[in-house]
Amino acid sequence: MDNNTVQMVCVSDFSNGNVTVDATRLKEYFAKVHEIGTEKRPMPQIEYRVIKPTEFINSVSTDKAIQQTVKVLEKTLKMSNEITVEILKHPTEEDWLWCKTCTLNTIGKRTAQMPTEEWKKKILAAEHSPIRELWFGIRMTVPYFSSVHFVRHHMGTNHYVQSQRNDRQDYYDRNEARQDAMVSHIMSVNAQELIYMAHKRLCAQADPTTRKVMNMIVEEVLKTNPEFKEFLVPLCEYRNGKCTEFFPCGKY
After folding, report:
1. CB-CB contact of 117 with 172 (8 Å)
2. What is the pTM for the complete model shown?
3. Each residue's pLDDT tens digit, 81-132
């Protein structure tokens, strides 16, 4: 997924305060509002997802709903240019050998041989406890509200978030700061929790900005540890098309 992708969009069932917006029409409206086109710069791609847009409850027309959606798209696009993700630490071959050592010890065996790629994928798929010995250190610059979403993951991960206290920083007044004020956030997370985190934060029902951040995390992780590719996916994909969300997006 490239950096021009805006992970938003539309909704269904106008009787419940939602509205279905045609992707082509929305794209045209987006171009008109910003007075941009493919000749000036690449048009951001629009990816469908279903959300429960409480902000649309008072909408009286499709046009108004589109205008509200465009505002969200504009804000998301602006923030996407400020968000950064960096891998500070990742499982090395030595870490993987330790994981294999712990695994074989449970059946009374020892080893000095490095695990194969096939073995790595098997134990990741099994999600057996030794994968909790594989740790990632991830530094992000993200909106405060997105940082809060990641902090909700509290098993198998530690969070070190830049303080907003006025006696610790002078970028803004904490008492007046917006929810989208950018903060630095380091996560120390083990492999099992990272897989679970991806299942939840890549879901089409996740917050669009947080989903964008999770996609960026996955992209960076796969640069160092490609063995994780088939596991860092939305839960429905991991379950071969089974969705257990209260409000499925309709992908499956």
Report:
1. no
2. 0.69
3. 688 999 999 999 999 999 999 999 999 999 889 999 999 999 999 999 999 9
Q: How far apart are CA 43 and CA 73, in angstroms?
A: 13
Return the SS3 of 138: strand
Q: Could you identify the residue written with the tokens 């045209």?
A: 28
- CATH assignment of the domain containing 112: 3.30.1360.170
What is the C-alpha to C-alpha distance for residues 41 and 48, in angstroms, rounded to an integer?
22
| Cα–Cα distance for residue pair 79/207, rounded to 1 Å | 13
Q: Are 107 and 232 contained in the same domain?
A: yes
For β-strands 84-89 and 46-47, DSSP reports them as unpaired
Domain total of the chain: 2
Domain boundary among 62, 80, 98: 80
Strands (DSSP E) contained in 127-243 are 135-143, 157-161, 182-190
- Indicate the DSSP class of residue 186: E
- Same domain? For 91 and 200 the reply is yes
CA distance 89 to 106: 27
Residue 177 domain boundaries: 84-238
Q: Are the C-beta atoms of 1 and 46 separated by less than 8 Å?
A: no
